[in-house]
Amino acid sequence: MRTYLKKLGAVSVIAMSVVVSPAVASGKVTGADYANGKTIFEQGKGDTPACNSCHGATGLGDDNMGTPRLAGQIYQFLAKQLDDYANDRRMDTTMYVMNANAKGLTPQDRKDVAAYLNSVGRVFSGEQLQVASGGSDVDALKENGVEVGVAYLGKELVNFGSVERGIPACLSCHSHNGRGVEPMYPRIGEQKFVYLVSQLKKFRDGSRTNDPMKQMRIVAKQLSDEDILNVATYLTQAPATTMGNTRIPVEHLP
Description:
This protein is mainly alpha-helical. The protein is built from twelve helices and two strands, in the order ααααααββαααααα. Helix 2 (34-43) crosses helix 6, helix 4 packs antiparallel against helix 6 (107-119) and helix 10 packs antiparallel against helix 12. The chain has two domains: 2-20 and 125-252, Cytochrome Bc1 Complex, Chain D, domain 2, CATH 1.10.760.10; 34-120, Orthogonal Bundle (Cytochrome Bc1 Complex, Chain D, domain 2), CATH 1.10.760. Strand 1 and strand 2 (128-131) form a beta hairpin. A two-stranded antiparallel ribbon has the order 1-2. It has helices at residues 2-17, 34-43, 52-55, 75-86, 98-103, 107-119, 138-143, 151-160, 171-174, 193-205, 215-220, 225-237; strands at 122-125, 128-131. Helix content is 44%, strand content 3%.
């Protein structure tokens, strides 16, 4: 138990020590061409198709295609994933197109797309940040024959983990309800259910290996199929705000 707590503490320290990158502290990515990113997302570039053809008109993803929500995702994470695809550090085993698509974009294009997508879904009203919901309709998925989990059991793992089983809480890195922490830990709250399940299984079986310090592979190996379904069921519906506080901290922008 002491060993587990030390490991969990180390992960928590890493997460808490992550600070907002100066490149995005103002809400805008320095040197990014948002208009170009929007054009590529909506129209593509050359042989690279429009991102919205798989990820939806507003970047909220598609459970039927197994594609993730990109809208409002942390910029640094999006930029890293595109670079990893372009350099074959991550292989697309869902749609089998992302490696070729990323290679069709210049480094600047990839930066522009990541910056644009990071900005999608945010609407400021005074000090209040309104965020578009993009999670999955779990009841509809269940009616269509998709196996889903139990949300309250997933909430327990997300918030507290399991000391006995060596599972750290998701929030120790991804923050409250998986809203993400710049620059390293992506937003996983309100992510598409099918995508969450597939990626946790890929981390578990080692078919996805571009996680920093093997953190996700280490955690996922401790998860059963039931755990994965429960966690994904909770996270896809999890609100980004904290109980009693409807504002989202700037450093935890979705």
